[in-house]
TrEMBL record:
Pfam families: Lipase_GDSL
Gene Ontology terms for molecular function: hydrolase activity, acting on ester bonds
Any single Gene Ontology cellular-component annotation: apoplast
Species name: Phaseolus angularis
The protein's name in its UniProt record: GDSL esterase/lipase
Family: Belongs to the 'GDSL' lipolytic enzyme family.
Length: 273
């Protein structure tokens, strides 16, 4: 998305050595692979929970003020574009495979729990000065290679019931966003729909220049994720990732992400201008 917006450099990962000095003026990346709205799931996946990411953001604000001055730092924080992408790992790497959760909560109940966490996060970010936020919807979870491997596929090569869960969650997120806009003066927030564009990629890959949409490039492409068993040297990893819709069993490839980013920018133009 940064490239699509025209940025020549990426915001550095906050915990990296690059996130210091004047580099802080271009922002920071607080994301953690396999994190999500469920704090416990993030811990189980050895990821940095959202609450800790928010703590790092507070820390970042202090460092930014030292570099730019308090007034300039406050302006940067207010005018910055924040992007929140979470939820997939909560379901695919936690809810569906964790009997301690899926025996207690229905998918709808778990989705409501996650949306509650999302709402709290947005309010906390707002208190810290954030005013422009784009949040991604859930993708068609039932079309992810991991879901196909675990549950088999049905309608149009996807797990229909899991796609239904994702659609139900997305309705909840949209409703929560509408309520937040009413509650928080000056907040500009939009849901970036990645469900439809990714579903279209999976159903008609050749239309977008892709060859493989059923499995990922990394390893076998059926179970590996970037947080588990997946890297460039994993046995079986493809040599032509640009032809794959998915990099691993959960995450889209860089080429697919570019297609998604183009769609997201169009959807969220009101946040950017």
């Amino acid at each position: 998305m940064s490239e699509t917006l025209g940025f020549k450099t990426y915001a550095p990962a906050y915990l990296s050595p690059q996130a210091s000095g004047k580099n802080l003026l271009i922002g920071a990346n607080f994301a953690s692979a396999a994190s999500g709205y469920d704090e416990n799931a993030a811990i189980l996946n050895h990821a940095i929970p959202l609450s800790q990411q928010l703590s790092y953001f507070k820390e970042y604000q202090g460092k930014l003020a030292k570099v730019a001055g308090s007034q300039k730092a406050a302006s940067i924080i207010k005018d910055a574009l924040y992007v929140l992408s979470a939820g997939s790992s909560d379901f695919v790497q936690n809810y569906y495979v964790n009997p301690w959760i899926n025996k207690v909560y229905t998918p709808d109940q778990y989705g409501s729990f996650l949306v509650g966490s999302f709402t709290s996060f947005v309010k906390d970010l707002y208190k810290l000065g954030g005013r422009r936020l784009g949040v991604t919807s859930l993708p068609p979870l039932g079309c992810l290679p991991a879901a196909r491997t675990l549950f088999g596929f049905h309608e149009n090569g996807c797990v229909s019931r899991i796609n239904s869960d994702a659609q139900a969650f997305n309705k909840k997120i949209n409703s929560a966003v509408a309520n937040l806009q009413k509650q928080l003066p000056g907040l500009k927030i939009a849901v970036f729909d990645i469900y439809k564009p990714l579903y279209d990629l999976v159903q008609s890959p050749s239309k977008f220049g892709f060859v493989e949409a059923n499995r990922g490039c990394c390893g076998t492409g059926t179970v590996e994720t970037t947080s588990l068993l997946c890297n460039q040297k994993s046995p079986g990893t493809c040599s032509n990732a640009t032809q794959y819709v998915f990099w691993d069993s959960v995450h889209p490839s860089q080429a697919a992400n570019q297609v998604l980013a183009d769609s997201l920018i169009i959807q969220g133009i009101s946040l950017i201008t």
